[in-house]
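task queued by scheduler; priority normal; single chain, no ligands, no partner chains; default sampling; output format set to structure tokens
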Amino acid sequence: QVHLEESGGGSVQAGGALRLSCVASGNTPSIHCMAWFRQGPGKDREGVAYIYTSNGYTTYGGSVRGRFVISQDSADKRIYLHMNGLKPEDAARYYCAADHRCPNGPWYQRSWPYYGEGTQVTVSS
């Protein structure tokens, strides 16, 4: 079993920056990929960023590419989401996800076995 806990959300003005953090506990050695998702009011879940923790490979959702960066601290089994150039449309609840298996294919569409409770990000214009 894996427990995920996010932190770092808050309120910022458009153009500002935030850093989200997600720490994993439990059966962490078996985790091989992690990701950030978000869901705004009335919107579908959106894949934000993905990291294959074994080799550091990363990929991003199209709406955040070039503005957000996902990184990891392998020793702590922690990932970060560095968000720059925030826009009002980035406002959402951001969730961390983890999996033991990392199948090929669209990571942002499949179901993940572990999610955190999320952290809220508000962006004012």
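post-processing summary
- The longest strand covers residues 18-26.
- The chain has a mean pLDDT of 95.
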